[in-house]
Fold this sequence. Notes:
Strand content: 5-15%
Oligomer: single chain
Distance between the termini: 24 Å
Order of helices and strands: EHHEHEHHEHEHEHEHHH
Largest sheet: 7 strands, parallel
Shape: globular
Amino acid sequence: MLDSHTHLNSWTLFQDWQKHISDFEKEWWNRLVNAWSDWKYNENWITICKEYKWKSYIKCTLWLHPLEVVEWKITQENIDEELMRLENMYIENKEYVVAIGEIGIDVHYDWEPNLELQKELFDKQMKLARKYGLPVVIHSRDDFDSTYEILENYKDLKIYIHCRWYWPQQIAKVQNNFPNLWIWFCGNTTYPSAQNLRDSLKMVNLDKLLIETDAPYLPVKEFRGQTNTPAMITHLYDFISDFLWIERSKLEKQVEENFDRLYIATFVACQ
Length: 271
């Protein structure tokens, strides 16, 4: 089965990435997408993809997270240069890349969110996704309206709403208005305070559902405080299967089909 979004390239997991993939495979999982977010992650995901020789389907996303703007790594002065650098990286490594992401809007933190530059970075990366026919993985936190405003211009793209999202009525809005949409659920769906996520889970069409760890972050509630890993996704499948009253095997099959339509079919077309 699969983990549709994880971070083996994070410093927490990268030092033992071979073990984490081995543990993942022992649970009979065989599809994993390793997500990009900044230049530091870049060296690690390239290492993993180039060195990985075993049976599983291990691919990556790339491009620039909105917090790169907040932390002033991307500025008005260097934005076009950095995007050109990333575009060249995609061209040189396209056999490993299945999507652009995480990209989007994040105004969660107290320091200056630099919203207009975030919007510019987001929009330009959406244009690159369209140029290369790639799906996009969206990170959006605390600003649904700005995110939706930009996404509305790209209904032709395959869009994966990753990890941090909003309330059921907002999930309904994107699900009803975007024909090529997939929606995440990860370990925080199990947290006692996350009733809004569980309400959202009830209303997501099964053919749009994806399941991810976002490891090393957000383990299921039984393991909060521990480092999450891809192999731990089995606990999330158990939770969602029970919560939706759907057989575990049926859930696995449906999520695998969803993953293949989002990632694998597009990846083959782009090669």
